[in-house]
Amino acid sequence: MEDAHKYASPYPRMIETTLSESLEMYLETIVRLERRDGKARVTDMARELGVSKPSVHIALHELENRGLAEHEPYGAILLTPAGRSAAEEIARRHGILTEYLSRVLGVSPETAERDACRIEHYLSRETMERIEEKVNGGQ
After folding, report:
1. pTM of the full predicted structure?
2. Contact 60, 69 (CB under 8 A)
3. How many CB atoms lie within 10 A of CB 50?
């Protein structure tokens, strides 16, 4: 694989035990919206996740309490350095899993994407490291 090294990074994991699947999904969605639209807003988050705006506000409040995000009313959602680090790690895991499912196991890209989104929150560090080894060409 030409970009095998793009997933290489140590596991500075605070995510595994401190964030719920739901909060991980919010962080991952903030990064996805930033990459796609240049910024993340409550309305965009609600539409992307299929939830209500009040649900987004509740999650943002929790992310703010944990020092992971900042949000001014009617403004863009901003990730703190700790929030960005956590979100990038979640997105990295998602990418590794999607590639593993599609390239190593031969799952269709659509199914790989959907399944990676479901399982990325539950894998242990050890399992994730083994999958990453396979994706990066290890035995």
Report:
1. 0.77
2. yes
3. 7
